[in-house]
Amino acid sequence: MTRFCICGGGSLGLVTAGVLAQQDGVEVNLLTSKPSQWSKDIKVSDLNGKLYQGHLHSISNQAKDVIPQSDIVLLCVPGFLIEKTLQDIVPYITTQAVGSIVSSTGFFFRAHEIFDDKTALFGFQRVPYIARVTEYGHTAHLLGYKTQLYMAIENLPDSFATQWGIWLSTPVTALHNYLEAALTNSNPLLHTARLFGMWHNWTKGVTYSQPIKFYAEWDEYSAEQYIAMDTEFQALSKIVDVSIPSVLEYYESYDAPSLAHKLRSIQAFQSIEAPMKKTEQGWIPDFQSRYFTEDFPFGLQLVKDLAVKNHLETPHIDRILSWGKQYL
Question: Confidence class of residue 158 from pLDDT cuts 50, 70 and 90?
Answer without folding.
Answer: very high
